[in-house]
Amino acid sequence: MITATKGLRVRRAAAVALTTGAMLATGALTAAPAQAVTAPTITAKGGYLMNGATGKTLFTKAADTKRLTASTTKVMTAKVVLSQSNLNLDAKVTIKKAYSDYIVANGASSAGLIVGDKVTVRQLLYGMLLKSGCDAAMALADKYGSGTTVAARTKNFIGKMNTMAKSLGMANTKFDSFDGISKGANASTPRDLTKLARSAMKSSTFKAVVKTKSYTAKTITKTGSTRTMAAWKNTNTLLGWNGTLGVKTGSGTEAKYCLIFAATLNGESVIGTVLTAPNEASRTADVKKLINYGYAKIS
Fold first, then answer.
1. SS3 content of the chain, % helix, strand, coil (to 5)
2. CA-to-CA distance for 61 and 255, rounded, in angstroms?
3. Catalytic site residue 74?
4. DSSP secondary-structure letter at 279?
5. Cα–Cα distance measured from residue 158 to residue 111, given in angstroms and rounded to the nearest whole number
6. What is this structure's pTM?
7. What is the pLDDT of residues 25-83, one digit of tens each?
8. Is 225 one of the catalytic residues?
9. pLDDT tens track for 165-189
10. Of residues 109, 110, 132, 251, which has the active-site annotation?
11. Distances (CA, A) of 289 to 48, 49, 166, 250, 293
12. 71 is catalytic
């Protein structure tokens, strides 16, 4: 009996040894180390990338250094508008000569809005976020600011933008315009603008607008007839590439080339910002690198 038991133990030990050896040979016991993902080098002076689902930081480059934001500012304009209580996207706004004068005086990008036309809030969002129309941005700021003059209302609206920035934890941000045409005090950081984008993308309206490649608005003229506007093409040429859903381009003599972006592929979501890229091609290359890097880091 004792001999039989000892024999059984020996056979069990041998079986365990054989099984362990087989597992070691196949790597079943020791998982292969994960392939290291090398952080990309980008040409933009500032950059930031986060996991869109968790908010976890994936990449930084001078992420908290304040820089000019150019038309990426319009994301905050949209955020303030879409945060209005009892917002009616179909409310009509009459285009004023002041908006046209502003465009001319500043050499600003325009949605081509016609003085006297009635345009809905929804259409203004498309004109601002796709075509980057500063006239559309001014119309929205005038509509949702408080005061007795256009100047007072737009100034009040900019105050709302800064209040919203504080509420979102954008500690290194200050806006002095509704469209990014700075008066000397308009600045934010890649990290702050990415926080803004993550919040804005929670709005189904915002998300639908920024992923649209082209939009044709039908406005109401002074005489009550319908005007079909020239199509507004989205300035974000990355839309649709590798899951890119938006968000907003920006460019200027001093700001150079900027882009806030969001992308989702196979359940993996990234959101980020590049500021002060030297040219449009470099900006595009930077963002592509960051999106691919983000996917690889998350997976």
1. 40, 20, 40
2. 16
3. yes
4. S
5. 21
6. 0.88
7. 444 444 444 457 899 999 999 999 999 999 999 999 999 999 999 999 999 999 999 99
8. no
9. 999 999 999 999 999 998 778 999 9
10. 132
11. 12, 11, 30, 19, 6
12. yes
